[in-house]
Write a structure and sequence with these properties.
The complex is a heterodimer of chains A (202) and B (270).
Chain A: H1 2-18, E1 21-25, E2 31-38, E3 42-48, E4 51-58, E5 63-71, E6 75-76, H2 87-92, H3 97-102, E7 114-125, E8 128-138, E9 141-156, E10 163-174, E11 190-201
Antiparallel strand pairs in A: 1-4, 1-11, 2-3, 2-11, 3-6, 4-5, 5-7, 7-8, 8-9, 9-10, 10-11
Chain B: H1 2-5, H2 8-26, H3 36-48, H4 58-75, H5 84-106, H6 111-130, H7 141-161, H8 165-187, H9 199-214, H10 232-235, H11 242-269
The chains are: A mainly beta (202), B mainly alpha (270).
Chain lengths: 202, 270
């Protein structure tokens, strides 16, 4: 009987530690960024301003899942609006690059308001996430994408002490594989992804 | 060669015009000469984004509707009776096609707004398509081609204001194809022609206009003047010389385009 209690006393805390921990993505500090070549001259950088989702990690079992939803209409490449009479309006017309990106030519936000990433596998290196593999659905097309962690850690927030995890992830894709073919190759087909994510334990 | 084919002027102007002209020349003795704007549209689609239908987006549905309009126009019998049954049927088809094209966009709205928007879109497409069926047994081909040119050009210009360069290219390609057809009608002997020669261009252009409104930033008000395009060349009057008829018809058809573009410019400026 004592041995049973002794076993439970040691095993129970371990069971609690082994439970998957759910983290809610902090939309204020999490942004998916992208970059691609522009007419062979320079690289255009952009990001989506709104991302939310959930990350579940089980560091003991070395498993996890990631699901994030990105509002496609929040695409931001630094050219939001051309004011009448401005240099941008005179040189490039009344519509801005961000408006063009929202149109049927690219992200087609009227038909597909969300870009969704759902993981299929989370790979660990020790207790830290090393990479995430999953399916990205953009403009109605789903393709596999692999995101490599360039940094990742979990711990208390230095200001509010709440437990959280965060990291930077890199990946790449060809936009033509998602049906976003307009202006390839003048506007690059290869898109580099850099996703910064912070999430608080629920 | 790839760089040349990637240039927007080639994709929407040079190549569509050239291939439409070839089609118009080869078919100049047949009633299918009117497929030239459709050929131009297909060339522009092939050069810009290609014929891929993995996800049936609104733009891809537009491709299917455009090709369908060409086939329908080619299949229409040479009519001798009243116009209204054909007008009604074509109007219904065009309206249904517009709702089908915009379906996924309409589903993003609440039910009341979706029904309202669907009705407006269907009405616009139906009116544009029905107006290409003339009261007489067969259309005056030069007037029909002039209105096709203006309708394509107008929709292409408005698409730019709607922030879509792709739709603009497709609209301009339709205009290029109509220009090729118009050229053949001016220089060659008149041939038998389909009873609603302007139908393919009107259908494609109206769908381009609708998509520019629903997926872009174009105000719907700007589309309304384009409904006058099929009628405008007919009020220019009949003159004997074919080249003069083509010029007068094109100028007359362009007036609603100028009004539409002015409205879009004003809307963009505010």
């Amino acid at each position: 009987m004592r041995s049973i209690f002794a076993f439970l006393a040691t095993a129970l805390p371990l069971t609690v530690l082994a439970a998957p921990q759910s983290y809610l993505v902090d939309p204020v500090h999490s942004f998916p960024n992208f970059s691609l070549a522009h007419i062979g001259m320079s690289t255009i950088h952009g990001r989506f301003d709104e991302m939310n989702g959930r990350v579940v990690l089980d560091t003991a079992a070395k498993t996890g899942s990631v699901e994030v939803h990105i509002k496609a209409a929040t695409v931001n490449t630094g050219d939001a609006k051309h004011e009448p009479g401005s240099v941008a309006a005179k040189n490039y017309g009344p519509r801005s690059r961000d408006e063009h990106l929202r149109s049927a030519d690219f992200f087609n936000v009227a038909e597909f308001p969300e870009i969704v990433f759902k993981s299929t596998k989370v790979n660990f290196n020790g207790d830290n996430v090393e990479s995430v593999e999953g399916n990205l659905t953009m403009a109605g097309v789903t393709r596999p994408v692999r995101l490599q962690a360039t940094q990742f850690k979990c711990g208390p927030n230095v200001f509010n002490k709440k437990p959280m995890c965060g990291g930077d992830f890199e990946g790449s894709l060809k936009r033509s594989e998602f049906g976003l073919k307009y202006a390839v190759p003048a506007i690059g087909d290869d898109v580099k992804l850099v996703i910064g994510i912070e999430a608080y334990a629920e | 060669m790839d760089e040349w084919l990637s240039h927007p002027a080639v994709q929407s102007g040079v190549a569509p015009f050239a291939l439409a002209l070839v089609a118009a020349i080869l078919l100049r003795r047949s009633r299918w000469q009117g497929i030239a704007p459709g050929v131009a549209f297909a060339v522009a689609v092939a050069l810009t984004v290609g014929f891929s239908f993995e996800t049936l987006t609104a733009a891809r549905k537009l491709m299917i509707i455009g090709i369908g309009a060409v086939v329908l126009d080619a299949a229409l019998p040479l009519r001798t009776g009243r116009a209204w049954p054909i007008r009604l049927a074509i109007a219904a088809l065009a309206g249904a096609a517009a709702v089908w094209m915009l379906w996924r966009i309409l589903l993003q709205s609440d039910a009341g707004a979706a029904v309202f928007h669907a009705a407006g879109a269907a009405a616009y497409a139906a009116l544009a398509a029905a107006s290409t069926v003339p009261a007489e047994a067969a259309d005056e081909p030069i007037a029909a081609s002039a209105s096709s040119l203006a309708f394509g050009l107008g929709s292409g210009l408005l698409a730019l204001f709607g922030a879509s360069a792709l739709l603009a290219q497709w609209g301009i390609a339709v205009a290029a194809g109509a220009a090729a057809l118009l050229l053949m009608q001016v220089v060659a002997r008149p041939a038998p022609y389909a009873p609603a020669l302007a139908l393919p261009a009107a259908v494609i252009a109206s769908m381009i206009g609708l998509l520019s409104v629903f997926s872009g930033t174009l105000s719907w008000v700007c589309l309304l003047p384009l409904l006058a395009v099929p009628w405008a060349p007919r009020v220019a009057g009949r003159v004997n010389a074919r080249w003069l008829r083509a010029l007068a018809g094109s100028i007359a058809a362009s007036l609603p385009v100028v009004i539409a573009a002015s409205l879009a410019w004003s809307a963009a400026a505010t």
